[in-house]
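Reviewers asked in the last cycle whether our approach scales beyond single polypeptides. To address this, we selected a multi-component target totalling 1112 residues and predicted its structure end to end. The input consisted of the following lines:
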Amino acid sequence: MAAVADTAKSIEAAAGDESPMARAWLRLKRRKSAMFGLGVVILLILVAVFAPLISPFDPAQQAYAFVRKAPSWRNWLGTDESGRDILSRVIWGARASLLAGVVSVAIALGLGVPIGILAGYSGGWTDAIISRITDALLAIPFLILAIALAAFLGPSLTNAMIAIGVTATPIFIRLTRGQVLVVKTEDYVEAARAVGNNPLRIAFRHILPNIMPALLVQASLTIAAAIIAEASLSFLGLGQQPPAPSWGSMLNTAQRFLNNAPWMAIWPGVAIFSTVLSFNLLGDGLRDALDPKER
Amino acid sequence: MKRIILAIAALLFHAAVPAAAQTTLRIGLAEDPDVLDPTLGRTYVGRIVFASICDKLFDIDDKLAIVPQLALSHETSSDGRTVTLKLRPGVKFHDGETMDADAVKFSLDRHITFPSSFRKPELAAVDTIDVVDAMTVKLNLKNAFSPLIAQLSDRAGMIVSPKAAKDAGDKFGLKPVCAGPYKFVERVQQDRIVVEKFADYWNAKDVTIDKIIYRPIVDSTVRLANLKSGSLDLIERALATDLKEIKADSRLKLALQTEIDYQGLTLNLANSPAGKDGPFGKSPKARQALEAAIDREALNQVVFNGEALPGNQWISPKNPYYQQKFPVPARDVAKAKKLLAEAGLKAPVAVDFMVPNNPESRQAAEVIQSMAAEAGFDMKIRVTEFATALKEAEDGRFQAFFIGWSGRVDPDGNLFVFKKTKAPQNNGFYSDPEVDQWLDDSRKVSGVAERKAIYEKIMAKELDAGSIIYLYHRPVIIAHSVKLDGYRQLPDGLVRVVGVRIRP
Amino acid sequence: MLMFLARRLLQLLPTLFFVSVIIFGLQQLLPGDPALAMAGEERDPAVLDQIRRQYNLDQPIYLQYFYWIGGILTGNLGESMRLKESVFTLIAQKFPVTLQLALMAIVVSLSVGVTAGIISAVYKNTRLDYAVNVLALTGISTPNFWLGIMLIFLFSVHLGWLPASGYVSPFEDFWMSMKTTILPAFVLGNSFAAVLMRHTRSAMLAAMTSDYVRTARAKGLAERIVVLKHAMRNALTPVITLGALELGTLLSGAVLTEQVFSIPGFGKLIVDSVFNRDYAVVQGVTLVTATTYILLNLAADIAYVLVNPRLRE
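The resulting structure, written as structure tokens, was:
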């Protein structure tokens, strides 16, 4: 927490001849692991976007003559329980995972930041109530909240994203509130207030830009967590609906065939793992780039 | 501190010393059973545990014929309104009480009157119960009801110790006391149920295993791994896709049977607008088209490696009540397309296809989806967890529902509640006054031929314009260690331990 | 300090109140009908009505909430519809299981995480440091359930070294208990170890540049003693308190891990009860979990403040 709180200050302190973002980018570029992460993320986005072009088969195309076949020249990663090509399904599954990661974090940001600013900026009872509810939400196991919400909304990818987004919201409320408390006492905010700017304008013009770096770092790390959460929900059958592929639901099915088709379980897991790892690498790099003190 | 260490050491030591020549059978269950009270029990897996602790008035044999258990004989009056049961003498409950006519009357009354009893509908035909003498009871029925004896060969026929049941009230299921070969010892929810041999069992000479431990393990791969590693001796519901591996293992044996269940598609004909305005509500031809679009044998091959039994009726082709006149149809896509056109439906015909959330149903549903697509159906799969699916089905929020029925010994149990107008399981709102009449008639007669003749008329209607497309009957696959001798599998899928031995 | 304590305790009440409302509200949101879900194949309308009456499911929602809260305040967590067993008994049965799993996971993660963190700090910016960091990230990035499935495949299905699932109490058979819990504990401890490693690394880095370590070095003490005796001691306190904050993640992680390994603990109980719509169990177990988490947090906060007196105001 303390580390993130410092981020805003350091960004500002760095605001010299170049823009802080440009300097951060320079620092980020120097970090090989972060650039690797970024590279993989971009690659995954490309894979997801161009899935129809690069996947060798239609991911939903069943072939009863090729049920649960080990990797071969025809199917590089083998086939699944209905003879579908696993490579194609893994490629198409990238869509569900990336969407789930990005959209649910966007939802969490969209809900969490305004509420956090409200709490931090207004203080008093509003703050107290928001903070207690946030505490309460954070006390309930993440997955249980997400399961309950996803079950309520009905299983679908969209609803899983909403469920994960809402569940991740308290993290951003808490983070934003903490940041706002720090920034609020800064001179320029005090000044803006003295001049008689309305609170909303202050919040968005002066406070938001200053807490951006911390949010960015948290967001990239939460994307990683959200992708795992989506896979977990799909694993429990509360995500992407068949026959559309999702890595989590592929794993769920694979569990039954571990004895005779272990390849079904390996590749979707590897896909989740590498996606999450890249987002974590990128997030770590961002954290270090935006807050040089950490290293 | 020292004392604690000593205590732990004592515990460890105690655990390390094996009791002399105790034989234990460890059974892996596919689910965690619900409450172990025959009056309140609802699950299939619960019945597996009951098979060792609660004997019933009657049992079945491998041809589904009724055989004596706690009752020695049954006699139905010519008008079908009274049934007289002669009881087996010398039977004791686990608490030492005697099983007699009073106990039977008590148990049946408990099934019928207990506020939240799930046995009420099964025994609805029973009006009063008379104790004739210590070993004879007479059931007076409201109307003739031929499936009654079959009902008494399941939970509704389980006799509980009146003393224990009175003391425990609705907590009886926490420590059930019956007259089965094993008595309940302990249960840790989701972990294990332990029962031990009952020395005073009426057929004690055939009970050789001292203790049974039931362990619920949901994941079939893990269940099998435990069997192979020797930490279980028997598993139920092994996967058809694992058969090859089980056969290849010289330490394992298989027991196979065709289940009395059916799996199929329940179609919504008239329940809510989704049904009425849906393809199946609009025209019975849509049902026929969907049936023609499905290749049951291919479905069987893909999902069950060919181990299931394709079927098109509410009982399997092996059942004496199966109507040979209506054989399982082959796939005919051209016919399906033609029927859809005749129904006035334009491809793609969208169908809200509700599928319970388990891997087997999902896989089968995806296969059906792809087969139906070729005939012009757009089956939109909606995977729904079971608890929600039941409510959705009740409220009519589906057009096709992939759902099966675990099956009952008597064909009536697979049929009546699904087809009778407004019956609780009739989620598609099938309703045909003629069928209603025939259903009632079928309960009044008891000969196989007579009943079969009535069922034939119902079947013809069903295939023409019914609400259920029957697809296949699952295999019962029990895998066990070769050390187990004398295990035989009945079609109800339950695990019966009497007569089974463990070789050292 | 007392003021701080009093304030924190006072904050606890509204938090717990909101927790109860959220838990109750959430399960009301769950679709489906608990009575129907319980009945399964045996749906008889009259019997279902009877069950709804018996469990107050036919009452208005706010009344149901008051029945529940009233029960809790009088020490009655309710009864499982499915099993007819009291929720308290269920919790008493499951708590030791999850506790053992969590403790073993903590032991695993402390030993791996702290060691890796120290190594990484001492060899800062070397290849070893990078390797440890990548390893930690790998730990965080592996989905628990997948790791679980893969380990079961490798050690139980393929090699047959360890039992695939189940749970044996250590009082029953100690070695068997270790064998059944080592894989799930490893899976659970895996990501926790990574988090601990990162905390340790930054705390060690801070400690190594602090005055007292410099003094120790100036005194000419061997580097090994400086690191292990002086720096580590000072770095560990924040690591442990920060670690306590992450315990909630551990509880959350237990949900899927227990599911994959068929361990009859809290996580499996909650998930199964959610899917069975066994309301009283969902409510009771989630409430106990959330309260445990809140109390752990409080303890960690207090410990943190005790260590850093500057934060007291």
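The radius of gyration of chain C is 24 Å. We regard this as preliminary and will revisit it once experimental data from Aim 1 are available.
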